[in-house]
Amino acid sequence: MEYLERRRSLVAEQLEAVVERVEPDALGAQLEHVVLAGGKRVRPIVTVLVCEALGGDTEDALEFAVGIELVHNASLVIDDIIDESDLRRGSESAWAAFGHGSAIIASDGLLGEAFDLFSSDERAMRVVSEAMVELGEGEASELVAQPTSEEEYMRLARRKTGALFRAAAELGAIAADADPYAVEAAGDYAERVGVAFQMRDDVLDATADAERLGKPAGQDAAMERPSLVEVTQLTPEEANERARAQSDAALEALSSIEVEDEQALAYLEDLAKFVVVRER
What we know:
- The protein has one domain: Farnesyl Diphosphate Synthase.
- About 75% of the residues lie in helices and about 0% in strands.
- It contains 14 helices and 2 strands.
- It has a two-stranded antiparallel ribbon with strand order 1-2.
- It is an all-alpha fold.
């Protein structure tokens, strides 16, 4: 765990540095509330680990790792507004703390800081821009064209969650100056992890309590949101099996990459296995 904690600490330090330079101070305080309230930091860790696995240095990946975490947090701010969710990571969501207008401005601020970090590399800008298009289409689909089958749900999950995971991994590969095949394979791995993560999230929403989750439970059913359980009427056990299949596919994609750091690879493998058994 010390291995991962060191990388989380580096990401956290860089996040703090980004927030500290934001002006005006009121906006900086709002970004601090959103970004520094906690979180698993899965996406930035994926960026760092992929970079290391492909022979890059940790420092090479940090700006991209922080950038993708900022994009993720910006999307969460909007999710909470749409869902009218007043709890995030055990604290008040941004709109509950500051109001809708200020929360939207905070989301914009997060995106602005993120793209400043990506702007040094054309490939990074393209990867993140494509991911945001996918994410936006996913959010729109969830609101106005909800899936009614498992196939449609999978398309939504790839857009809404898989896209940012894919971007996180591809950014790590780009930071390591990897070849296009490795970038694509790393992205395939992470997209599958992201979809498995979303599936498990749906199961937890249906079965866990709010205190354990750190956010309201039962939101999918209450808001008629298209979770895997709601769309397919699968049992939680069957839904978990679907998530495990995605995890296995992620591991297969990862195995096709020629790596230089076996320890980083091992943690990426562990992540693919962990996302389907996590409890929050």
